[in-house]
Design goal:
- The chain is an alpha/beta fold.
- It has twelve helices and 22 strands.
- Helix 1 packs parallel to helix 7, helix 3 runs antiparallel to helix 4 and helix 3 runs parallel beside helix 5.
- It is globular, with a radius of gyration of 24 Å.
- It starts with a strand and ends in a 13-residue tail after the last helix.
- About 45% of the residues are buried.
- The mean pLDDT is about 95.
- Homodimer.
Length: about 475
C-alpha cells in the first residue's frame, strides 16, 4: 500500500526541516525528503545554509577575524605574542566539524519530533502524489494531503567564468581552500562576495572584487553603503564597480580575467577566482508536467502571500519563491505554512525581515531605506549615532560605523533601522522588535538601555531623530 502523510516536505534546508518539525509538533503525520550528501558521502540535512552557506562561512569569518585581531590589535591591548600564523587546513577542518555537528543535530530533531525521513530526489506528481527516486534509481510514490516545496537554490553560473572548483570556484568551493591565495579575484560585490573576500583578505590575500553594477550595495541604505565601501577599501579590498567580466582563461594554477569598465577592455590575473553573482532556485525535475504548479521564466514558483501555489494543498517556501533568499525568511515561511495547514490563521510580516552582511564591521538592515522612502514621497526624520562616541565600542577597539534610525516625520513611527558596526545584526533585531509593535522613535528614546552597551547607540540614534541625542552634538534643524 502507498504510504500516506498529512504533510510531505521536499527539501530539508532551513525552510523544509523547520516546516516538517512544526507540522509534526502540530499533530500532523509528516515526512521530509532530502538527497544532499555531505563531504563524507552521507545524507546531510540543513540545506545550503548549514552545509555550504551561512554556517561554514561564519566559521571562516570568525576564524579569520581572530587571526586579524591577533595580528593587528593585540599590541594595542598590551598583549604580546610570538609570530602569529594561520593553519588553513585546521581552520577549514574546524568549519567542517561545526557543519557535521549541526547537520547531525537537525537529523536528531527530525527523529525526536517523529518526522519520517526519506533519502532521494522528491518530485511532485498530479493529485498531490510525491515520487522519490533513490540514488540507485529505484522509485516509490507517497500520497499527501499537503505538500511543501522547499528545494532551495544554488549558485548562478555565468558563461564567461565556467566553474571548475579548482582555480575558478563558486561560493561552495571558496569554503575549502587549503592555503591562502596570493591574489584572489571575486566576481560580485554582493553579500556572499564581500563575506568571502573578507575571509581571505584578513589572511593576507590581495583581493580584487569585480562588480558589474555601477553602484555599491544598491539595496542597502545609501549612507550605510557609502560607509561600507570606504571601510572595506581601507581594509584592503580593491572594489571595481562597473566591471563586466567578458571571459576567463585558465593557465595552470592561475586564471586571467578579461573585463570591461568605463575605460575600456582590461585584464587581471589571479591565483583563484570566486564566482559569486547570486543564486537561482532549484526547480529542475521538481514538478511533473501535470502537477498543476506554475513557475515564472526564471524558475521561481508562483505563490500568494501565504505561500500557497496554484494547486490547493501545495505550498512553496524559501529560495524557490519570491522575496529575499534568506534562511530565516524560509524558516518562518515554513512555520507559517505548517500553522495554516493545521487550520491556524498564521501570517508573516514581509516588511520586517532583517538582512545582514557579516563583514567586519557587520552591515545590517530592517525596514525601508532613506532613498526608498524619499522615492515614495514620505517625509522622514533621521537620527544617526556613531560608534566612535560609544564608550563600549571604544573599550572593545571597535568604533567603525554608526546606527541610523529613520522615522515618519508626521507620526514619528520608526520605518527603518540601519547599522554598520559591531554587533549590527543584534542591534537591528532590537529595531525590528520595536517596529513590529509600531514603536515611535520617541518610544525607543524613552526606554532605559544598559550602560555601557553597544545598544546605547540605537537609543541615541532614536533620540537624535528629534534632535535630542545626549552624547553627540545634535544637528540644528
Amino acid at each position: 500500500m502507498t504510504q500516506k502523510f498529512d504533510v510531505i516536505v521536499i527539501g530539508a534546508g532551513p525552510g523544509g526541516y523547520v516546516a516538517a518539525i512544526k507540522a509534526a509538533q502540530l499533530g500532523l503525520k509528516t515526512a521530509v525528503i532530502e538527497k544532499y550528501k555531505g563531504k563524507e558521502g552521507k545524507l546531510a540535512l540543513g540545506g545550503t545554509c548549514l552545509n555550504v552557506g551561512c554556517i561554514p562561512s561564519k566559521a571562516l569569518l570568525d576564524s579569520s577575524y581572530k587571526f586579524h585581531e591577533a595580528h593587528e590589535s593585540f599590541k594595542l591591548h598590551g598583549i604580546s605574542t610570538g609570530e602569529v600564523a594561520m593553519d588553513v587546513p585546521t581552520m577549514v577542518a574546524r568549519k567542517d566539524q561545526i557543519v557535521k555537528n549541526l547537520t547531525g543535530g537537525v537529523a536528531s530533531l527530525i527523529k525526536a519530533n517523529g518526522v519520517t525521513l526519506f533519502e532521494g530526489h522528491g518530485k511532485l506528481l498530479a493529485g498531490k502524489k510525491v515520487e522519490i527516486t533513490a540514488a540507485d534509481g529505484s522509485t516509490q510514490v507517497l500520497d499527501a494531503e499537503n505538500v511543501i516545496l522547499a528545494s532551495g537554490s544554488k549558485p548562478v553560473e555565468i558563461p564567461p567564468a565556467p566553474v571548475d572548483q579548482d582555480v575558478i570556484v563558486d561560493s561552495t568551493g571558496a569554503l575549502d581552500f587549503q592555503s591562502v591565495p596570493g591574489k584572489l579575484g571575486v566576481i560580485g560585490a554582493g553579500v556572499i562576495g564581500l563575506e568571502l573576500s573578507s575571509v581571505w583578505a584578513r589572511l593576507g590575500t590581495e583581493v580584487t572584487v569585480l562588480e558589474a553594477m555601477d553602484k555599491f550595495l544598491p539595496a542597502v541604505d545609501e549612507q550605510v553603503a557609502k560607509e561600507a565601501q570606504k571601510i572595506l577599501t581601507k581594509q584592503g579590498l580593491k572594489i571595481l564597480l562597473g566591471a563586466r567580466v567578458t571571459g576567463t582563461e585558465v593557465n595552470g594554477k592561475q586564471v586571467t580575467v578579461k573585463f570591461t569598465d568605463a575605460e575600456g577592455e582590461k585584464s587581471l590575473t589571479f591565483d583563484k577566482l570566486i564566482v559569486a553573482v547570486g543564486r537561482r532556485p532549484v526547480t529542475t525535475d521538481l514538478l511533473a508536467a501535470d502537477s498543476g504548479v506554475t513557475m515564472d521564466e526564471r524558475g521561481f514558483i508562483y505563490v500568494d502571500d501565504y505561500c500557497a501555489t496554484s494547486v490547493p494543498g501545495v505550498y512553496a517556501i524559501g529560495d524557490v519563491v519570491r522575496g529575499a533568499m534568506l534562511a530565516h525568511k524560509a524558516s518562518e515561511e515554513g512555520v507559517m505554512v505548517a500553522e495554516r495547514i493545521a487550520g491556524h490563521k498564521a501570517q508573516m510580516n514581509y516588511d520586517l525581515i532583517p538582512a545582514v552582511i557579516y563583514t567586519h564591521p557587520e552591515i545590517a538592515t530592517v525596514g525601508k531605506t532613506e532613498q526608498a522612502l524619499k522615492a515614495e514621497g514620505v517625509a522622514v526624520n533621521v537620527g544617526v549615532f556613531p560608534f566612535a562616541a560609544s564608550g563600549r565600542a571604544m573599550a572593545a577597539n571597535d568604533t567603525a560605523g554608526f546606527v541610523k534610525v529613520i522615522a515618519d516625520a508626521k507620526t514619528d513611527r520608526v520605518l527603518g533601522v540601519h547599522v554598520i558596526g559591531p554587533s549590527a545584526a543584534e542591534l537591528v533585531q532590537q529595531g525590528a522588535i520595536a517596529m513590529e509593535f509600531g514603536s515611535s522613535a520617541e518610544d525607543l528614546g524613552m526606554m532605559v538601555f544598559s550602560h555601557p552597551a553597544l545598544s546605547e547607540a540605537l537609543h541615541e540614534a532614536a533620540l537624535a531623530v528629534s534632535g535630542h541625542a545626549i552624547h553627540i552634538a545634535n544637528r540644528k534643524k
